[in-house]
């Protein structure tokens, strides 16, 4: 049985389109308007970052947004509380580091996500071998755990990662942390092609997809993209309007391309 | 059976340890686990390492009995002299092992984090010796208070980057080194400086440091005919402590790991996950990692290696704390009474011993003098300048 996130991805894919999942740092001033702007301009789902003190998978832009959010008093509880009033009509996922989950307790955290109306979770420092207990708790609460497939993964690992993934498989676009890059890394499409070959689940490329043109390039192989730093930078510099314009531009490029 | 465990592929010491890293790093950790196990069981590798430890680092390190302090405190006090190793601390034991291993694995470059700069200096040293490129991440607060070590690393040919994120101390230097490693993992070995991080680091680093405890066990046996009543070491990540505890964990000796009051992972922490491991961790009610505060850059860390969490959980070792003021007093006490200027880190061990001496009258105490204090003289001069 597929959950809300996977259903949203499939409905876009089945209609011949490509999925667009922006990332917004929860708790950053104006973040809820930024989420609404994403939803209003063609996002298929939105990833909400729960800021953590030690975000090892994030580069400078998302680090900065997280730190500002933390300095402003954002907590997992305050963000989930605010999420309840976000009536955007598309699935929401949280992106959080594992200590946030572990500290709350697996069952409790899964339950808190579900009751806030969150559909899915991405935990970038929880690899397959350590993920079992959380995934079981998440499955039981109806939370889809998106698993990450890394460019360094050997062939035998990818099917196990894909098998455990719910919602979609997050195909990591490069060796490195989140942040904007001048060009899409070659590894992005190479890995996505490897993952597509071994799963029927939706496969999205994230990390290092920085503009509309790169989103189109990535989507030639993948079912869509996750865009983080490029969106967060616009939220920092220009607020929700700027985020909305950017998402509309990427949506337009994806819809206008021929596959 | 020894209390010292050889973790299985899940990297656990009891409930602690593990491998909580991004998927990108999993294959590298697995490769390292196998490469280490292979090397450790290879007599050629062990011979190469032993030769470096002997002829380059200056092992074995001596044990010195402190007669002046001993009679002042009413105990018999022995120091394991890791301060006399090349580069001035125990850190070289681990670094020579890891850099030799990195070379064997065909890596061209190492990255390291450093707090006090001792691990960074040791890494830069070994990289210079064995011909690898070296980059060291150090929190900006620490580059300021340990400026001499920054220059030493640069002299040795390493690139030093001041880390400006978060608390700008050791924890943030680890974050930045891990970010580097995520991007460079194909050519680069992460030379982690303590018994922390994802499996196999806590186990591997302990094995590289157990030479401290193995030597000390024999040395104490020669002097006392038995093991000491207490074995005391400071705990940042916990490598010098695990090293010396290794030799005594199966003896009746009481094992004492001394943490700074402002960085008491075991004393004030709860189980948590950061930097790839599950261990005691100072954190707030939402699991945000707290900033540690210690006069000593090398102990300014909110976590602790998972094997210490395990030893604490089974009651085999105790983890008391001392305050910065007690440390400043102990630093001076050791200098004046014994003519030895200790690193601020191991001055924590001395501070605990001098505070608890009334409860240890007539006992034998072995302290790991993990490093020499030259690096701390500038900082102490600004604290004590007017009063001595
Ligand atoms: C002399 C000395 N002792 C101790 C430490 C703390 O590290 P660990 O707890 O891993 O021994 C350091 C770290 O910088 C150090 O320089």
UniProtKB/TrEMBL annotation, chain A:
<dbReference type="InterPro" id="IPR018204">
    <property type="entry name" value="Trp_synthase_alpha_AS"/>
</dbReference>
<comment type="pathway">
    <text>Amino-acid biosynthesis; L-tryptophan biosynthesis; L-tryptophan from chorismate: step 5/5.</text>
</comment>
<keyword id="KW-0822">Tryptophan biosynthesis</keyword>
<dbReference type="InterPro" id="IPR011060">
    <property type="entry name" value="RibuloseP-bd_barrel"/>
</dbReference>
<keyword id="KW-0456">Lyase</keyword>
<keyword id="KW-0057">Aromatic amino acid biosynthesis</keyword>
<dbReference type="Pfam" id="PF00290">
    <property type="entry name" value="Trp_syntA"/>
</dbReference>
<dbReference type="InterPro" id="IPR002028">
    <property type="entry name" value="Trp_synthase_suA"/>
</dbReference>
<dbReference type="InterPro" id="IPR013785">
    <property type="entry name" value="Aldolase_TIM"/>
</dbReference>
<dbReference type="GO" id="GO:0005829">
    <property type="term" value="C:cytosol"/>
</dbReference>
<comment type="subunit">
    <text>Tetramer of two alpha and two beta chains.</text>
</comment>
<keyword id="KW-0028">Amino-acid biosynthesis</keyword>
<dbReference type="GO" id="GO:0004834">
    <property type="term" value="F:tryptophan synthase activity"/>
</dbReference>
<protein>
    <recommendedName>
        <fullName>tryptophan synthase</fullName>
        <ecNumber>4.2.1.20</ecNumber>
    </recommendedName>
</protein>
From TrEMBL, chain B:
<dbReference type="Pfam" id="PF00291">
    <property type="entry name" value="PALP"/>
</dbReference>
<dbReference type="InterPro" id="IPR023026">
    <property type="entry name" value="Trp_synth_beta/beta-like"/>
</dbReference>
<dbReference type="InterPro" id="IPR001926">
    <property type="entry name" value="TrpB-like_PALP"/>
</dbReference>
<keyword id="KW-0663">Pyridoxal phosphate</keyword>
<dbReference type="GO" id="GO:0005737">
    <property type="term" value="C:cytoplasm"/>
</dbReference>
<keyword id="KW-0057">Aromatic amino acid biosynthesis</keyword>
<dbReference type="GO" id="GO:0004834">
    <property type="term" value="F:tryptophan synthase activity"/>
</dbReference>
<dbReference type="InterPro" id="IPR006654">
    <property type="entry name" value="Trp_synth_beta"/>
</dbReference>
<dbReference type="InterPro" id="IPR006653">
    <property type="entry name" value="Trp_synth_b_CS"/>
</dbReference>
<keyword id="KW-0028">Amino-acid biosynthesis</keyword>
<protein>
    <recommendedName>
        <fullName>tryptophan synthase</fullName>
        <ecNumber>4.2.1.20</ecNumber>
    </recommendedName>
</protein>
<keyword id="KW-0822">Tryptophan biosynthesis</keyword>
<keyword id="KW-0456">Lyase</keyword>
<comment type="pathway">
    <text>Amino-acid biosynthesis; L-tryptophan biosynthesis; L-tryptophan from chorismate: step 5/5.</text>
</comment>
<dbReference type="InterPro" id="IPR036052">
    <property type="entry name" value="TrpB-like_PALP_sf"/>
</dbReference>
<feature type="domain" description="Tryptophan synthase beta chain-like PALP">
    <location>
        <begin position="58"/>
        <end position="371"/>
    </location>
</feature>
């Amino acid at each position: 049985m597929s959950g809300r996130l996977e259903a949203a991805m499939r409905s876009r894919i089945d209609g011949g389109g490509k999925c667009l999942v922006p990332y917004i740092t929860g708790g950053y001033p104006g973040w809820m308007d930024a989420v609404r702007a994403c939803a209003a301009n063609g996002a298929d789902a939105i990833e909400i970052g729960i800021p953590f003190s030690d975000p090892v998978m994030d580069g400078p832009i998302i680090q900065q947004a997280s730190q500002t959010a933390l300095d402003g008093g954002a907590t997992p509880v305050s963000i989930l509380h605010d999420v309840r009033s976000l009536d955007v009509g598309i699935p929401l996922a949280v992106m959080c580091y594992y200590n946030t989950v572990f500290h709350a307790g697996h069952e409790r955290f899964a339950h808190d996500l579900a009751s806030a109306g969150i559909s899915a979770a991405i935990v970038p420092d929880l690899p397959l071998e350590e993920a079992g207990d959380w995934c079981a708790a998440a499955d039981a609460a109806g939370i889809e755990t998106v698993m990450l497939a890394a460019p360094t993964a050997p062939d035998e690992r990818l099917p196990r990662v894909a098998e455990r993934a719910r919602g979609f498989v997050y195909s990591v676009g490069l060796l490195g942390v989140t942040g904007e890059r001048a060009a899409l890394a070659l590894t992005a499409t190479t890995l996505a092609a490897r993952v597509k070959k071994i799963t029927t689940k939706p496969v999205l490329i994230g990390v290092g997809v920085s503009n509309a043109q790169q989103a189109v390039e990535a989507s030639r192989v993948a079912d869509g993209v996750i865009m983080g730093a490029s969106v967060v930078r616009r939220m920092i510099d220009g607020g929700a309007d700027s985020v909305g314009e950017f998402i509309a531009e990427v949506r337009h490029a994806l819809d206008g391309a021929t596959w | 059976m020894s209390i010292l465990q050889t973790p299985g592929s899940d990297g656990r010491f009891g409930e602690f340890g593990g491998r909580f890293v991004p998927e990108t790093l999993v294959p590298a950790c697995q490769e390292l686990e196998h490469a280490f196990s292979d090397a450790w069981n290879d007599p050629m590798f062990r011979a190469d390492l032993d030769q470096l430890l002997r002829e380059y680092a200056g092992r074995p390190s001596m044990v010195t009995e402190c007669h002046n302090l001993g009679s002042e405190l009413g105990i018999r006090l022995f120091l394991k002299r890791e301060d006399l190793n090349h580069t001035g601390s125990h850190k070289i034991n681990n670094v020579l092992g890891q850099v030799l291993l990195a070379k064997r694995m065909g890596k061209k470059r190492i990255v390291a984090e450093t707090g006090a700069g001792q691990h960074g200096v040791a890494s830069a040293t070994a990289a210079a010796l064995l011909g690898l490129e070296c980059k060291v991440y150090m929190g900006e607060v620490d580059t300021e208070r340990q400026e001499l070590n920054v220059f030493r690393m640069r002299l040795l040919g390493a690139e030093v980057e001041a880390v400006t994120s978060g608390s700008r101390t050791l924890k943030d230097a680890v974050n930045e080194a891990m970010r580097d490693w995520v991007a460079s993992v194909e050519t680069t070995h992460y030379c982690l400086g303590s018994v922390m991080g994802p499996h196999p680091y806590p186990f591997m680093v302990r094995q590289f440091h157990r030479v401290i405890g193995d030597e000390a066990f024999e040395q104490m046996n020669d002097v006392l005919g038995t093991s000491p009543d207490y074995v005391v070491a400071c705990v940042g990540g916990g490598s010098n402590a695990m090293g010396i505890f290794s030799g005594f964990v199966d003896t009746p000796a009481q094992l004492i790991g001394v943490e700074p009051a402002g960085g008491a992972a075991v004393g004030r922490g709860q189980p948590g996950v950061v930097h790839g491991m599950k261990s005691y961790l100072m954190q707030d009610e939402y699991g945000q990692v707290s900033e540690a505060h210690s006069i000593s850059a090398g102990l300014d860390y909110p976590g602790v290696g998972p094997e210490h969490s395990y030893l604490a959980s089974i009651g085999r070792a105790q983890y008391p704390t001392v305050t910065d003021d007690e440390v400043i007093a102990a630093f001076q006490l050791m200098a004046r009474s014994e003519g030895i200027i200790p690193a601020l880190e191991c001055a924590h061990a001395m501070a605990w011993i001098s505070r608890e001496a009334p409860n240890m009258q007539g006992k034998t105490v072995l302290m790991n003098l993990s490093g020499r204090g030259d690096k701390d003289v500038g900082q102490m001069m600004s604290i004590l300048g007017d009063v001595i």
